[in-house]
Amino acid sequence: MKSVTTASASTPADSDSDSDSDDATARTSLLGASSTPSKDFSSKLDSARHAKFANARGSQSSHASPDYRPGYHLGVLLSLHLSTFWLLDSLKDPILTLTTGIESQPTAKMYSIAFTLLTTYLYNLFQETNRNRLFHCLLYLYSSLFALLSLISPTRSVYTSYLNFLLTESYGSLVTAHFWGFCNAHVEFQDRVYPIIIGMAQIGAMLGGFGASGGDDISRRYFVGGCLGPIAVSISLYIYESKYSISVPGTAPQKSHDVWRGLKLIRKEPYLHLVLLLSTVYEVTLTVLDYLLKLLSIRKYSTPTGVSVSSLTTFLGGYAAFVNLLSFLLSVFVFERLLRRFGFKMSLTVYPCLLVFVTLLTFTSPSLWLVFVSMGLLKSLAYSVNDPLKELLYGVTTNEVKFGCKSWIDVLGSRIAKGVGSMLTGSVGGDERKLVQRAALPCLVAGILLAGASVRVGEMREEIGSRKVGEGEEEDEERNQGIEYEENTGIEMVKDDDEYNNNRVTEDLIAV
């Protein structure tokens, strides 16, 4: 029989009868305690919680000035990742155009929703084991898939072009979301360090855009970016972890993990509703404008024999370089000054206001270079200003929210918003005039909705104070798991005792 140490069984038994009595007393005590929440367990849990947050506040106050060194290293890491992503992203649409035509882009984006749902589910299924190891496994998995696809050639058939589209979209979303979750959990003085990370990252993004420009040999560039890029990111992450002794907090092995917990937290917390809107709704407008840019550029670089792939990749590579150069300048010279002068709440409204203005301007008189500049301005401001502000919103949340909820918001939520935009673009059949007529009002509504969400979430962030969003949910889950453990232990003791008594009866019968 299993031995269990309790307060009611503290004296050793000298005989079988004494042992049986002590075991029965222990079971009665334990089962009685398990029928209601354990006060001792709750008090110990609360004490540990208060001590944890007190230590966290003390450690933050002990730093007189920010340490920028982790920011530079993380900037290099994100730079390597974005150089890979922008190279692949700049090749993604030319590959699709070459095999199926640009008219199939909305369909590919709709497929990416289902594919991203699958990858996000798998990510959340395994993320509680070891988040460090998961990040590395994710990078090596994508590296292997991109290497295999480059050997087959992404332009070989319709299926390979669609697979390339899905892998590129999911890679950019999932790896980027995990990176920022990592930063939100470990970087202090985020308002000072994040501009450094973003600024350095745009250098890599510019190089990725230039790498996609010119030439017809897509497979070679695809292999260099898709296979070697994620490996370089993983090596850089290993160096960072060893240098700063980083261990991403995970859940204890005995703790049950609910894959859908992140979605449940988003549903329960009004603050996360607004973060979801702020992180996703603008993608509707960007998806429509991006498709309009591709239609106009393909019309410009079409020849009697078809689309010039080299000219199209050069144009899109130049567009990527323009976006990231502008983003670099904004992150270095604008973001921190904007935050200091106008504050966090006012800074959040800059991007929604610009989105509404650009939507009205672009749909009034669409042309290739107007859409080029408009998209460049919107994307660069999103990367350099809106995204860092969005990440700062997670500063008042728990690690459960930073990793579990953020992956659903940034990956799946963003993909669904792009899917809504793709429904608008897919309904026009490549007709630019129909696209402008049908998409103008939904894009304007998305901009207004984004503006309202930005104002309200800024107010809620100030109202939260010292409380952490999602904190009560974590405490309730841990307390319930402690109660469940006590109940299961009591049931197991009853089963063991029944088995023990049956064995004793059998032995007595044999003896007789």
Automatic annotation (TrEMBL):
Determine if Nucleotide-binding is one of this entry's keywords: yes
Q: Which UniProt keywords apply?
A: ATP-binding, Membrane, Nucleotide-binding, Transmembrane, Transmembrane helix, Transport
Key word Isomerase present: no
| Molecular function terms, GO-annotated | ATP binding; ATP:ADP antiporter activity
Where does the UniProt entry say this protein principally localizes? membrane
Segments of skewed composition (Low complexity):
1-14
InterPro entries, per this entry?
ADP_ATP_car_bac_type, MFS_trans_sf
- Compositionally biased residues, Acidic residues: 472-492
- GO CC, alphabetical: membrane
Span-the-membrane segments of this chain are 138-156, 162-181, 193-210, 222-240, 271-293, 313-336, 348-372
Topology within the bilayer: Multi-pass membrane protein
Polar residues bias (residue ranges): 31-40
Map out region (Disordered) in residue numbers: 1-43, 464-492
Localization, per the record, is: Membrane
The domain of life is Eukaryota
Q: Family assignment?
A: Belongs to the ADP/ATP translocase tlc family.
Q: Which PANTHER family match?
A: ADP,ATP CARRIER PROTEIN 1, PTHR31187
What is the name of this protein?
A: ADP,ATP carrier protein
Q: Tell me which species this is from.
A: Triparma verrucosa
